[in-house]
Amino acid sequence: MSNDMELTELSEPADNNSPRSARELEAVYDIPVTVSAVLGKTTMQVSQLLKLGRGAVVELDRKLGEAIDIYVNNRLVARGEVVMVDDTRLGVTMTEIVKGDRGSS
Fold it and tell me: Do residues 69 and 79 lie in contact, with contact meaning Cβ atoms separated by under 8 Å?
């Protein structure tokens, strides 16, 4: 990136409330991101973990029907519900977009 380009970008007003046009965002369209759907979490001792075997049930901190967390690149962005896509695949329906502090990570 040239210095002229950086100066131009810095001199433009930084209005974080204005929506970006599709053309302005084209540069990021092909960047891959990792999307994760977390059903729940638990904490256990290593000794308990080592005792787990096939068919073991690990109890999570969520209740049946409770929304799951959806992360993009390890950042919570939404909550949703697990859905069946076809007979062998699961998906997630986003039911709530999480608006967080963009400055924290």
Answer: yes
Q: Rg of the chain's alpha carbons, rounded to an integer?
A: 21
pLDDT, residue 7, reads 33
Cβ contact 65:40 at 8 Å:
no
In whole angstroms, give the CA distance from residue 30 to residue 24: 13
Q: What is the pLDDT of residues 57-66, one digit of tens each?
A: 999 999 998 9
pTM for the predicted model, two decimal places: 0.65
Residue extents of the structural domains in the chain: 27-105
The DSSP code sequence of 9-34 is HHHS---TTSPPPHHHHGGGTT----
Level-2 CATH architecture, domain 27-105? Roll (2.30)
Other Cβ atoms within 10 Å of 23 Cβ, number? 7
